[in-house]
Amino acid sequence: MAQETLDSESAPAAPAQEVSVVVEKPQVTEKEPQPSAPAPLPEPEVPEKPAVVAVEEEAVEVEKPKVEEKEETKITQSVSFKEETNIAGELPEPQKKALDELKQLIQEALNNHEFTAKPKAEEKPVAEPEPEPKKEEEENKEEKKEEKEEETPAAAISEEPKVETDAPAAVEVKEEENTPPPPPPADAPAAEVVVVETEVAEKAKAVDDDGAKTVEAIEESVVAVAAPPAEKEKEEPSAEVAPQSEETKEAQVPPPPPEKVSIWGIPLLAEEKSDVILLKFLRARDFKVKDAFTMIKNTVSWRKEFGIETLLDEDLGNELEKVVFMQGFDKEGHPVCYNVYGEFQNKELYQNTFADEEKRSKFLRWRIQFLEKSIRKLDFNPTGINTMVQVNDLKNSPGPGKKELRQATNQALNLLQDNYPEFVAKQVFINVPWWYLAFNRMISPFLTQRTKSKFVFASPAKSAETLFKYIAPEQVPVQYGGLSREGEQEFSVADAVTEVTIKPAAKHSVEFPITENCNLVWELRVVGWEVNYGAEFVPTAEDGYTVIVSKTRKVSSADETVISDSFKTGEPGKVVLTIDNQTSKKKKLLYRSKTKPYSD
C-alpha cells in the first residue's frame, strides 16, 4: 500500500476543474510507474481488481452533456475497495492452496537456512578447492599401489626359482614353457595363482628323489605369489568401509534447527498472525506462489541490510512531525495517516530535508521509521485491522519541477512497493490541483485495477465532504473540516457529531432541550462558513422570556473554525441555534452537545 501512496504522490492529473474522483482498486503486483510530484507517502501497495471512478462536480460548474452522463453513470457504479478476509478457512480454494504451498516453501527455506544463505555462499569458494587435490593424491596413490601389485607377482616368481639350487634346470624349463601365455592384468590376481599352481603340478611329476625340496620351494613361491592378492582383498574392503563410516558419522550429526525469521515483529509460520503477513505478499503478487516467496526473501534481506530493528531506536528528530502524522480512525477502524506536502513550501524545511543525498537519505530513514512504528501498532490477528488509510494533502504542494523532492519520492516509492505490500486500505488525495489530476489520468492506464480501486481524489471544494465519507467528522482534524483538536477539549472523539446539509438560500435551526438546573455545552462548525449564526434560549413556560445567548452575526471562514458555547439555566426550555445560508451553494453543518448537572 505504501507503493500506492507514492504512486499517487508522484502522479499529477485531470482538468482544471474542481473534481472529486473516487478511484477504487486492488493492489499492484508489478511495480507501477513512478510519477513525479509530492513526497513519499506511508504505505506500499500492489494491484488487483476492477476500479470505478466517481466524479463529483460542483453544481455551478457544468460541462458537455455527454461527459456529465458518463460521470453520473460512473457514480452509480462506484464501489469502494473491500478488503478480503484473512481467515484461512474462509479463503477460496485456489487462494487456500496457494497459502499452503507458500508455507511449505518457507518451511523448507527455514530448515535450509536460506534466509541467511548469502554468508555461506561467500565461504564456498574458499572451502571447495581443498578437497579436490586430496582426491587426486589418493587416486595417484591407488594407481601406484596397483602398479606395484602388478609387478610383485612376476618378481616373486622370477626370484624364487633362483633360490631353488636343487632343480634349477626344471625351473628354467617350466618358465620357458609358461612364457607364451600373456601376463595377467593387475586387477586379476586369481589368474596368477592358477598359473603358479599349474607349475607346481608339473614340477611335482618331474621331480626325482630330491624333488621334495623342489616342490616345497615351489609351494613357498605359490604362497608368496598368492599372498599379495589376499592382502589386496583385505585392503579393498577396508577402503570401502572407511567412507561408509564417514557417511555414518555425518548421518549421526543432527541437522541444525530451523532458523527464526520475523517480519514486523511477527515470526514466520509461528502463529496464525503469520498467515496475515503471507497473504499480503500473495495478494501483492496475484497469488503467484513463487513470486510471493521471492518477494518475502528479498524483503527479509532488505530489512537486514537497511537495519530495520536498529532503525526503530534511532533518534532522527521531530522536524517533520507536521509533514506526516497519525490521527484518528476511519469508520471501519483503520488508523489514518496524514501526509501534508504543503509544509515543504517552507524553503528552510525543504533545504534541510532534500538539499543533498545525505539529507534525502535521512528523510527516507525517518519515513521508513515512522511507517514501521505505525505498522507495529496494527492488529495482525486474522480478524484484526492490519491496514491503514492514507490522506494526502496536496494544498500548496511543490510542483513536479522540484528535482530533489521527485528523487526522494521515487526512491521511497521503490522501497515501499517492494517491501510493504497491502498496508493501505484507502488512498485519499485532497486539495488536488488540476495538474495532479491531469498527470494521474495520463498514467492511469498503467496502474493495476487493484491499486486504482483504492484511490480517491477530491478538489479543494470537495475535500472535507470526501473525507466525511470515510472518516467521521469527530475523527477528522479541524484543519480539514472536522472537529478533532489537540489538547484538552470539552469534547473528544468519543462524542459523536451530527451532520446536516443546508441547502442554498435556506435557514436551518437546531434545538437542544434542557431541564432545570442544567448546563448545556455545544460546539458547531459550518464547512466553509459564510453564513449567519445566532443562538437563543426559549423557556417552556408561556410567561417566560427568551434569552439571547449569541447575537446573530455573519461568520466567515477566516473568523473561526469552530464555535464553542454553553448556557446555564434553572428552568426547563430549549436552546435554539439558527444557521442562515444565503449563498448559492449548499453547506455542511456539524454540531454536537452534552449536558452537565448544575446547582447554585
UniProtKB/TrEMBL annotation:
Residues 490-595 form the GOLD domain. SUPFAM superfamilies: CRAL/TRIO domain (SSF52087), CRAL/TRIO N-terminal domain (SSF46938), Supernatant protein factor (SPF), C-terminal domain (SSF101576). This is CRAL-TRIO domain-containing protein. Belongs to the patellin family. Keywords: Cell cycle, Cell division, Cytoplasm, Lipid-binding, Membrane, Transport. It is found in: Cytoplasm; Membrane. Residues 61-74, 93-103, 115-147 have a biased composition (Basic and acidic residues). Residues 313-488 form the CRAL-TRIO domain. PANTHER family: PATELLIN-1, PATELLIN-2. Its main location: cytoplasm. One of its GO terms (cellular component) is membrane. It comes from Gossypium darwinii. GO terms for biological process: cell division.
